Amino acid sequence: MNCQSKFSVAPMMNWTNRHCRYFYRLMSKNVQLWTEMVTVKAILHGDKNRLLYFDACEHPLVLQLGGSEVKEMARAAKIAQDWGYDEVNINVGCPSDRVQSGSFGACLMQIPQVVAQCVDAMKQVADVPITVKSRIGVDDMDSYGELVNFVSIVESSGCDNFMIHARKAWLKGLSPKENRSVPKLNYGWVYQIKRDFPHLLIGINGGIMDMESSLQHLEHVDSVMLGRAVYYQPYLLSKVDGLIYQQKSSILSREQVLLAFIEYMKVQHANSVAIRSMTRHILGLYHGQKNAKKFKRLLSSKTVELEHLYEWLEYMDKNNGQ
Known about the structure:
Blueprint: E1 7-9, H1 18-25, E2 33-39, H2 40-45, H3 48-52, E3 61-66, H4 70-83, E4 87-92, H5 97-101, H6 112-125, E5 130-138, H7 144-155, E6 161-169, H8 187-196, E7 201-205, H9 211-217, E8 223-226, H10 228-232, H11 240-243, H12 254-270, H13 275-279, H14 292-300, H15 306-318
Parallel strand pairs: 1-8, 2-3, 3-4, 4-5, 5-6, 6-7, 7-8
Helix pairs in contact: 4-6, 6-7, 12-15
InterPro entries: Aldolase_TIM, DUS-like_FMN-bd, DUS_fam, DusA, tRNA_hU_synthase_CS
EC number: 1.3.1.91
Cofactor: FMN
């Protein structure tokens, strides 16, 4: 992440794929988009086109990697750069059992030397920023001093950019879903990290639900990251360019966003992409509007087709958006 990336959408498994990211980009030119976490082994041995392809409009775009084997991480970073990603991020925050069994994610907070080795090896082969996304702690590693130690060791390898989820992760006893809400938020520790490491770029993540809160956090740190708030209320991204980046740009209406995404879906469907695999990302487009439930019912139909979305636009035009 560079100094200009003050606002980003979190990497969310099964959600922030290329179709979802294209949809988000329609509402903000500046928001930094992140891929779902992709494992290093999948990149090295899997279908790279399926895993790494993205539309040029998605820039600025971050590839988040899951892994801990130093040489593999370096190879993946070079591949990411060759594919045109703007940044490569190391996942040091995911608490799922599958991730733990692969020795990456939040469990890496307990072995910061390994994270530092990965950063160093990745920076030697790639010129794009190598960043780290972590928690404030994990299991019994729950003191501020231990968080400082983690940041200090990883910084020593040349990492100058940390995105910190302001919750500790419990690797045993809590599900990944519970880890997003049960551990208490501690924004103060993230703010303090920025004060103690003023030369680093520090981002904050966790429980941020609206633009007003985002602006408040930006008084203390360099960037904010929203996840599920954006997925369920995607149109809030239409405020980002003006409020966060102070750019005077015309804001597309929900109907204009939908029409643009329909045109995108046309092309994708012609290439054998299922309509429902794309429409699932736009369920929240009318969140908070009188017709939100009606829109969701339309998209939830097993027989939804693009023509139904054109009919929706006609309906909205006739009824003045009501």
